[in-house]
Structures are given as C-alpha cells and as structure tokens.
C-alpha cells in the first residue's frame, strides 16, 4: 500500500530519500549493465513466456513494455492460491503471492538471456530480499518463476555467475522457483506506468528505470510501449500460466 500513500503525499520519508528512490537505512544499487548470460535453454520458434517479480509490478511491467521483442507484459500475482489473488489481500503480505509480471516475447527478436540481463540491470535491485525502493513485504520479493528444469538451472547459474563476479555490492537475493500459476492483476494496475508517467511514485521510482533501459540497452529499447489493453479487464483469478501457442 506504500505507493498509494506516496501518491497522496502521506509517506513520512525525508525528501532527499524520496528523490533518490532509496529506502531509509540502505544504499540502493544503481542501475548498471551487468554481464550477459553465458547460456540459456533452447527456445522454440513460437512465442515464449517468463514470469518475474521485482517489487511493485508497475515499474517492472513498464520496463519490459519498452523492450524490443516483448509482445505483452502483464502485471499479476504469483506464488499463492487463486482465491487470494486480489490486490487488497496480497498487500497484507500473508498470501504467499509476489507482485509479478508475465512477459510474452518473440525469441526471434530477443533472447531469454537478454531479458534476464535487462531484469538484473535495470528492473530492480536484486540484492534486496523482501523490498524494493519504498515498498517492503514478501509481496515485493525478487523472484524468477520458471516453467522447465532447464530454465531454472540456467537462471540459477546466471545468478551464481553474477555473484561470483561481485557485480553487486551484496549477494543477489533473487529466488528461482517453478511457476504454478499466474493470476492477472486488476485492470487499473495494467499499463500503470504508461498511463501515469507523472504520478509521484512512478516519476520517483520507475521512470528512472525506463531511462536506464534506454541508456544501457539502446539496441533493445523501443520508445512506444506495447500495452496490455486486451488483458486489462481480465479477472484476478484467471490463470495464465501455460505458454501461448505459436506466433
């Protein structure tokens, strides 16, 4: 709920911390171009999916909507049961869900390895365990949700490589777990960054991520975001965990 309090100007955090996007008591990792993934599992010729969690889904969705080859990025909930996949319930931190983004992409245009590189470079601070920016709680944890053992092995190997290279100032806290269901969030959450770029929470915490994407990945950045208009009205309990069919 922190982001709605910030929109209302009711968060008691010093202005300097708000402007930096940092949480009190911790120095945030600045966006940086992390090393590319050495290898990822072979991908089919049709559209593929990967689901990631990295704090508030507004910013994660907003980043990947600007990545070339991404056909759709949907905000939702992962890690809990279907009957608790509603924002008010997830926000209590008691459901097991994490705010997540399910990314549908064309492997002919962008690889899973590059998506992972974008994720760790600009979408979040992966050294944070159950928090990102001004938000804290298990629903804001960092996690990669995989659909095959090979995908899980590759994700863990990539994290281990980044840790071994000391790319970040602290160990990576990102978890890797199998995907057992993804539940699209309420329509008002979809494309929130694109529709509200000047909202204080977005301007402070998330627009800098999109700018970092443009700066660090110019070959993969697209100025016009791909929006999820078709999914905006999807009920929160609708599962979308299965890969889509061929393009």
Attribute tags:
247 residues; alpha+beta; Peptide Methionine Sulfoxide Reductase, Chain A; six-stranded mixed β-sheet; two-stranded antiparallel sheet; 9 helices; 8 strands; globular
CATH class: Alpha Beta
Give a count of the beta strands, DSSP E runs of length 2 or more: 8
Shape: globular
> CATH-wise, what's the superfamily?
Peptide methionine sulphoxide reductase MsrA
Total domain count: 1
Helix-strand pattern, N to C?
HHEHEHEHEEEHEEHHH
Gyration radius, rounded? 17 Å
The CATH topology is Peptide Methionine Sulfoxide Reductase, Chain A
Q: Approximately what portion of the residues adopt beta-strand conformation?
A: 15-25%
What does it look like?
- The chain is α+β, with helices and mostly antiparallel strands.
- It has one domain (2-6, 47-227): Peptide methionine sulphoxide reductase MsrA (Peptide Methionine Sulfoxide Reductase, Chain A).
- It has nine helices and eight strands.
- It has a six-stranded mixed beta sheet, with helices on one face.
- α5 crosses α9.
- The longest helix has 16 residues, at 149-164.
- The radius of gyration is 17 Å and the shape is globular.
- It starts with a helix and ends in a 31-residue tail after the last helix.
- Residues 5-27 and 231-247 have low confidence and may be disordered.
